[in-house]
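1st attempt posting a full record on here, be nice pls
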Amino acid sequence: MKSALYSNMMRATEELKSIVSSLSTRTLVSRCAAYITFDERKKTSQVQLSSPFKEIYFLLEIMLATEEPSPEAEVELTEGTWQRLASLLEEVIQQYGLMYWDAPDTQPDAIEDWERITSVAMPVFLDYHNTPTLASAQQLREKAIGLLAPFDDAIEEGHGLTASQAVAAVDTLQAVLQENLDSLVATTGDMLALQKHACRPPFDVKRIQEEAKSPENVALATKYFRLLNDAFVVRRDQIAAAFDSEVANAFWKLFSSRRQEVADPKLYFTDFYRSEKAPLFEIEDGVACCPSINAVYAAVLDRLTCSMLSNGERVEAFLRHRGRYLEEQTADALARVIGPGATVWPGLYETRDLHHEHDLVVVVGRTVLVVECKSTPLREPLRDQGRAFPRLKRDFEKTIQEGSDQAWRIRTALFHERREFPLFDKTRDLVLTLRPDDVDEVFEIVVTADRYGALATDLTMLLERSENHPSPWAVNLWDLDELTRRWRPLGQSPESFFEYLRTRREVHGLVFSEDEFCFAGYFIHHGPWQPGLAGQADRVFLNPSYGSIFDDAYQAEMRGEQLPIPKRQPPVMMDPRTDEFVHMGPATPQVRRKGRKTGRNAPCPCGSGKKYKRCCLG
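the predicted structure (as tokens):
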């Protein structure tokens, strides 16, 4: 670890602590909530956080290590102070990322080996620790119920409330927060209408001052500032009103935190903070600020799952249920995107004595999908690259590699050995026979319960395969679920889904993103990847904004709206070495050289419709 980087990180952390110690819990948490709710989505802050969730909760972890300031010592959180906090958070995360490269005691002697190890371990490490669970509140809620509710009795015995009650308690808080924000939006509209009325012609300052003092206007202003102050505030008694005080107290004990509960803030993003485990931040007894309802659903899911994994008597039953849950959810997701024309066969075996299981076999006309589900999560990557690589490789071999090997058996039999392939169910009955003459195409899919980052999106990192075996589609359940929910509303069809699976095979090792939604977003905007599109590029990095189409579709659904279906158009690439934009049309690519510099606020030359500073400049 470089001493200079460590010193810089310590200095930035100490400055963060110094600033935070003079801010009240309500002030800081409310500003964090406003960033998560408004600024981060609309990109309105001057300093954008590169890993918003992790940086926000690192900041709140620092807050928990400080005392609540007295009213006399408390200071106002100005926009300038917030921007300073954001700059310091970015500095901390950048210093930490740079320290990853400095491991001279563990680097292999051979440079080629070191480069291979680093090219795998580094992106997985940074993605694992900088990326939160990318799931909506609905997905987190559904998984918590589906995975944990069958074990309510064991969870209640350990925590004083069931998983079902914990989820319902979060539902209650979500409704409270939504009502708070709805009231604030409505009152803001009333305030703007009042302002417009007050400034009506003829403009008269004295009249405006007199009208502002009227009881009705004073009451409206008082209501507005009260709603603004309490927008992200929840109370324990709101849970008690829905259940009882015992359930409310048990929930509050598990998922609320208060200042000085943390002895010293963690310096490393590899830690699971108290602020993440208990993301309701008390401002007084039984009253807390909630910066993100998703974080509370995630805390319920993570903490109660950990509780079951440490339950010696029930852990085996829980693990079996976790595997079945993954298979059931995967089957539902695929049926959603493919439609009624598919026949889904769960739990089939190659032999009558139940050897060589295939979790799902989906038959759609002359197309077969062989799906293997792996519920084992990726273990936390280590900072030490020499130790991290073999650990990542073992986890990959037990999940994506093993699933690929299983799925390829059907392809080998049908297309290379040209033989029939019988499949039996768990009652040992023959239920399906695949014949070479009846099958035109086989897709192999490996679904993991948790995110595997670049190990899944770029299988050339670790996957071992022969030329006869195309790369499978490796996807985690969170992404599969959301992708299949949005596929048809975004104008896609079952046929285009198969087309997407084909194009995903072709881009491993050439096109890079750690987010499956970026690949899918590219496909929706531009269609299949065209051979030779990258030209002389060693690797193409997808613009992260491609994935935002799925966020936009989700938000549109929440508002009861229909997102406009994007019209496919040729992609645009930028070579960062030359600042050239290459418009890839059906004919010869056209190169747009830099020439006059593109302004930060000008439309991006790539054609995304976004400002240059919010797109390719970033």
